[in-house]
Design a protein that fits this description.
Blueprint lengths: L3 E6 L5 H13 L4 E5 L7 H11 L4 E6 L6 H15 L5 E3 L4 H4 L9 H16 L4 E4 L4 E5 L11 E4 L3 H10 L2 E4 L5 H18 L1 E6 L1 E2 L2 H16 L3 H6 L4 H13 L2 H6 L3 H7 L1 E2 L2 H15 L3 E6 L4 H18 L2
Parallel strand pairs: 1-2, 1-12, 2-3, 3-4, 4-7, 7-8, 8-9, 9-12, 10-11
Antiparallel strand pairs: 5-6
Helix pairs in contact: 1-2, 1-14, 2-3, 3-5, 5-6, 6-7, 8-10, 13-14
């Protein structure tokens, strides 16, 4: 079936732009449109509902967590989105991040429990049956979605830590991995947890593809934030020592993002991302696709501008199609 291509939109732009970018992505042949649930940006389900109404083929879903939204509420929202889109909904769960949780004063406690029970709650409710269930963090008492029908909505986990990768191997329909240098180590951890399920899962690589010097420079502006939540295994793979990561964290906390970004060496971005000329990006993406048997490449969109993002999407689609040949 070849290599599929998708986008994850970080909704820093007005909601109408989010919708127009998603519509443009479908017109360019994209297979997936994910929207980050960032708390204080455009509401993810309002925007996805509008996208579902303006598109006919592209699969749509949130990148969300079980801290800011109860998984029963998420299950209901996704069922509604699946109805509205004609069966195109999917869910990507994350364990929460500091950029989302800190402004709400929500501690990132027991992330494995939160993710595991979120999947459990969602799938139980999607059965269409009335559910009474008790977990460590969540409980359901005769809970039932109003449609009372079976929903088969794929659940992908975005995982980085070893325990979360193992949980993905045992429970998810797909896994979302970041950092080019960590694909092999992450998949090895999953295979050790459940090799048979890992072989059958959808394998997703999500990151930026920096096919120009401008995109490479842009990547470093946000990478200081990305590094904050990375486990040591991934930092080691990027060649970042303890002293270096501490300097970046300190700069981010005391001086600000711009100062922290200046400490992110270009080699770090090169190890983490597919980068170079379009031809070099095609070859690099082709290599990791074959080596790690990737199914989907998701491009992060983080800046406003429908025209600029459409141009970016067109170039990325060509690179991904080249790599999938």
């Amino acid at each position: 079936m070849g290599l599929h291509v998708g986008i994850q939109i970080i909704p820093t732009m007005p909601v109408q732009e989010v919708i127009e970018i998603a519509v443009a992505a479908e017109a360019l042949g994209y297979d997936y449109c994910l929207l980050a649930d960032e708390g204080f940006m455009a509401d993810v389900y309002v925007a996805l509902g509008a996208i579902a109404q303006r598109t006919t083929r592209i699969k749509v879903g949130p990148v969300t967590n079980g801290y800011t939204r109860h998984p029963a509420v998420t299950a209901n929202a996704l069922a509604t989105l699946d109805d509205l889109s004609g069966g195109r909904a999917l869910a990507v769960l994350v364990a929460g991040g500091s950029m989302v949780l800190n402004p709400m004063g929500i501690p990132r406690e027991a992330p494995l429990t939160v993710v595991r029970e979120s999947v459990e709650v969602m799938r139980r409710l999607w059965s269409g049956e009335a559910v009474t269930w008790q977990g460590q963090r969540y409980r359901l008492q005769e809970a039932q979605l109003s449609g009372r029908r079976l929903y088969e909505i794929p659940v992908w986990l975005a995982a980085r830590g070893e325990k979360m990768l193992a949980l993905a191997a045992r429970t998810a329909d797909g896994v979302v991995l970041v950092a080019k240098s960590d694909l092999g180590p992450a998949l090895a951890i999953m295979a050790q947890a459940d090799g048979q399920r890992t072989e059958r899962m959808v394998r997703v690589y999500m990151d930026r593809i920096a096919y120009s010097p401008e995109l490479l420079a842009e990547a470093s502006d946000m990478y200081a934030f990305v590094l904050m939540d990375m486990p040591q295994r991934m930092l080691d793979g990027l060649g970042i020592g303890a002293g270096e990561i501490e300097r970046i964290r300190s700069a981010l906390a005391t001086v600000g993002p711009a100062a922290a970004a200046r400490l992110v060496r270009p080699e770090i971005i090169q190890r983490s991302q597919v980068a170079g000329t379009p031809a070099e990006c095609c070859r690099a993406l082709q290599e990791i696709t074959v080596e790690h048997r990737l199914d989907v490449v998701i491009m992060n969109l983080t800046t406003p501008g429908v025209e600029a993002n459409t141009h970016l999407l067109r170039a990325i689609a060509e690179i991904v199609r080249c790599a999938g040949q």
